[in-house]
Amino acid sequence: MQIDPTKQSTQANYKLLIGSVLPRPIAFVTSLGPGGAVNAAPFSFYTVVSTDPPMVSITCSRKPGGVQKDTARNIAETGEFVVQVVDGENIARINQTATNFPPEVGEAEAVGFEVVASVRVKPPRIAQCKLHLECRLHEIRPMGGSKDQPNADVIIGEVVWFHIRDDLYHEGRIDTAKLDPVGRLAGTSYGKMGETFSMPRLSLEEWYKKHGKQEE
Description:
Radius of gyration: 20 Å
CATH superfamily: Electron Transport, Fmn-binding Protein, Chain A
Strand content: 25-35%
Helix content: 10-25%
Order of helices and strands: HEEEEEHEHHEEEEEEHEEH
Number of helices: 6
CATH class: Mainly Beta
Number of domains: 1
Strand order of the largest sheet: 3-2-6-9-10-5-4
Largest sheet: 7 strands, antiparallel
């Protein structure tokens, strides 16, 4: 099958992308909206950008007409947000926050999450989550679409504080099994950890020793 993305709709390309780039980690983002309402929404276009300083990015697709989603607008206005890791214990309730509530309604409160204060930023954290990244906005950039109606906003945030539940942290590492992260697949499908394996990378010298050096 050969497909030219310029010959099909945005929605058709979207389906191919989410069926190709997977599993995708999910950023459950809290931000402060109008009147201090705690906006909470999941985003599966999410990754690490830098380690020095630590940075992450989330991509917020825009609504029809190029209108920013509440999360992107809130972050652009306040410059702060918190990323929560989605795990097996909180995925059902996090999925409920994707309901299209009006901006003045806080999704976290609406679905029964408890919020707790952050250390370095004003948006609160979700108490039921095991791991949180407090972030300050580094850059927000409209992408795709047209100049007047972008397709999405790419938001890059610097992580200014980590919150990790004590039982997950050991000698500088996070216990992935205890964290129990959930990833997004295509459509309404999600995935959890299944079989895992370790595959150390060989140094060049080790590779030549194992496989033999090619003759010049």
